[in-house]
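F.,

This is the one I mentioned.
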């Protein structure tokens, strides 16, 4: 098979699945609204079940819901009828995912759920199937064709199921007013979590606090910059307010221009009004500021403009934010 043939198959697959997803727009009806509303008002959890590939989709939807404020648990349809059905509690709602709605395990599970008295949502690709006819609410995920050349392997259908699950999750997020701060509570680990909870104060305190007075001479300036290994020193007044900063770049530019180095003082070469940030600002805000102004350091100051320290681009890189 040559390059063009492989690319053609890849494109055909994506086009078929994209078409299946677009087709879901016509299936968002009153049942979808009522299903979302029921889950929102649920006093228990959303128990999501399925068999085969649908079970894998169910696990993904459970993960999405849990991380966005809707309590959900996964129940494998085969295990449910062999003892795990005990995890379904009185106030839970059950969502069963199935393309055909006719799998033997589903046919056994559905009457049991109905006997328990739990509300049942069927996410199904056959609206006249056993599951669809028994469900209180039907989420229609019918697809015209699988992307599989034999129209057998679950491809378009499982994609449609995941997208329908995402549609529910996003509706529930917005209904709950779930925001970035809430998201951070459930995602404390990894780079995503750090973007949501890491603050400037968590980083700059690890660095030295280089500072000199406005009348500091060249040697003192050099020692302060090189000693901190931050490539910068702050110039502060007697009340520890920032007057300016001097970077190693400022030093190099000064040496190119000046011949009388004895007369050089910090106030002669400092950059006034340097970019500043508060300790409680998010680290990702600091990164945006550094990028915007194409600099590598920020001066950290308290609400009264007192000098606290320096945040360096390397601090953010070390945390995986860049």
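My design for it:
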């Amino acid at each position: 098979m040559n390059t063009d043939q492989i690319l053609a198959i890849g494109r055909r697959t994506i086009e078929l699945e994209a078409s299946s997803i677009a087709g879901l727009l016509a299936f968002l009806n009153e049942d979808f609204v009522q299903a979302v509303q029921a889950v929102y008002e649920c006093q228990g959890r959303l128990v999501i079940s399925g068999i085969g590939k649908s079970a894998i989709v169910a696990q993904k939807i459970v993960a999405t819901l849990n991380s966005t404020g809707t309590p959900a648990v996964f129940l494998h349809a085969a295990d449910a009828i062999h003892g795990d059905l005990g995890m379904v509690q009185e106030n839970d709602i059950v969502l069963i995912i199935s393309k055909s709605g006719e799998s033997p395990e589903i046919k056994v599970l559905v009457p049991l759920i109905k006997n328990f008295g739990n509300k049942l949502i069927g996410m199904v690709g056959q609206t006249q199937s056993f599951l669809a006819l028994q469900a209180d609410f039907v989420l229609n995920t019918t697809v015209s064709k699988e992307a599989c050349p034999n129209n057998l392997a679950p491809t378009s259908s499982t994609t449609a199921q995941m997208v329908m699950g995402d549609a529910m999750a996003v509706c529930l997020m917005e209904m709950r007013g779930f925001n970035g701060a809430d998201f951070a509570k459930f995602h404390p680990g990894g780079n995503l979590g750090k973007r949501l909870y890491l603050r400037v104060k968590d980083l700059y305190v690890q660095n030295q606090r280089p500072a000199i007075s406005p009348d500091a001479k060249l040697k003192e300036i050099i020692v302060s910059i090189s000693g901190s290994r931050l490539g910068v020193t702050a110039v502060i007044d007697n009340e520890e307010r920032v007057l300016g900063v001097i970077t190693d770049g400022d030093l190099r530019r000064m040496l190119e221009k000046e011949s009388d180095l004895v007369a050089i003082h910090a106030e002669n070469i400092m950059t006034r009004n340097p970019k500043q940030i508060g300790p409680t600002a998010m680290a990702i805000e600091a990164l945006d500021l550094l990028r915007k102004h194409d600099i590598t350091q920020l001066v950290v100051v308290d609400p009264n403009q007192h000098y606290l320290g320096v945040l360096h681009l390397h601090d953010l890189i070390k945390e995986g934010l860049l």
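The chain is about 45% helix and 15% strand.

Talk soon.
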